[in-house]
């Protein structure tokens, strides 16, 4: 991840050949998204890229769009968007938004969105997506009127049926409220979900970490 420096930062992805240093593929977020957020310098704030070589797809986390997006890395075609449907309602992108099934706590300002190989829901027709949900609107509290203002963060696991365009939230683990940065890592061998809270909001909990079994 890098910056286009065309009036924006943290809005570009590059694939670099390690042997030659040549840029072999790249994506600027403005090429797939456009609209009212483009006038902000840090309008997407990309913080994660996860590549799936078997399908030539990437899962990306543009934090300031409150979304996790999967797209084809060669064609740049969006496959789906995981977010509260209200965010993209009325735009050309709402057709990509996964439809929720069951109860949800949607993410706000998420980090480390990954597609994992482990089947956590026992359904071979779905894939699992993990993330650290900071659940905080950085300098944008007035932009989204459905922000629930809960003072805690979450480790989240979603089960996505890509064929049907649906999503279920199968794990929601509360953790220390961390406003920015942070990470959620699932460790398959030990079946642990680690939450690394990088910017703890409450001073008395600044040194607290988490090791949470799924």
Q: How does this structure look, described?
A:
The protein is an all-beta fold and 214 residues long. The protein has one helix at 85-88, and strands spanning 12-16, 23-28, 46-52, 57-62, 68-72, 78-82, 99-101, 111-116, 127-133, 153-161, 166-175, 183-187, 192-196, 210-213. The strands form four sheets. The chain has a five-stranded mixed β-sheet with strand order 7-11-10-9-8, with no helix packed on it. The protein has a four-stranded antiparallel β-sheet with strand order 3-4-5-6, with no helix packed on it. Strand 10 and strand 11 (166-175) form a beta hairpin. The two termini are 29 Å apart. The model has no long low-confidence stretch (mean pLDDT 89).
């Amino acid at each position: 991840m890098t910056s286009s420096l065309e009036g924006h930062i943290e809005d570009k992805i590059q694939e670099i050949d390690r042997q030659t240093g040549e840029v072999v593929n790249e994506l600027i977020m403005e090429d797939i998204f456009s609209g009212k957020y483009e006038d902000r310098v840090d309008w997407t704030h990309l913080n994660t890229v996860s590549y799936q070589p078997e399908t030539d797809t990437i899962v990306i986390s543009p934090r300031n769009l409150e979304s996790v997006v999967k797209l084809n890395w060669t064609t740049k075609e969006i496959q789906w968007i995981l977010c509260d449907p209200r965010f993209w309602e009325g735009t050309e992108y709402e057709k990509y938004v996964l439809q929720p099934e069951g109860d949800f706590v949607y993410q706000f300002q998420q980090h480390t969105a990954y597609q994992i190989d482990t089947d956590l829901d026992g359904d071979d027709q779905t894939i699992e997506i993990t993330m650290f949900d900071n659940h905080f609107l950085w300098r944008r509290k007035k932009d989204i009127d459905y922000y629930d203002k809960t003072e805690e963060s979450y480790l989240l696991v979603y089960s996505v049926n890509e064929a049907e365009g649906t999503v279920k939230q199968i794990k929601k683990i509360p953790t220390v409220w961390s406003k920015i940065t942070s990470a959620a890592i699932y460790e398959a061998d030990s079946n642990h979900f680690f939450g690394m809270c990088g910017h703890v909001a409450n001073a008395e909990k600044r040194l607290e970490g988490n090791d949470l079994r799924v």
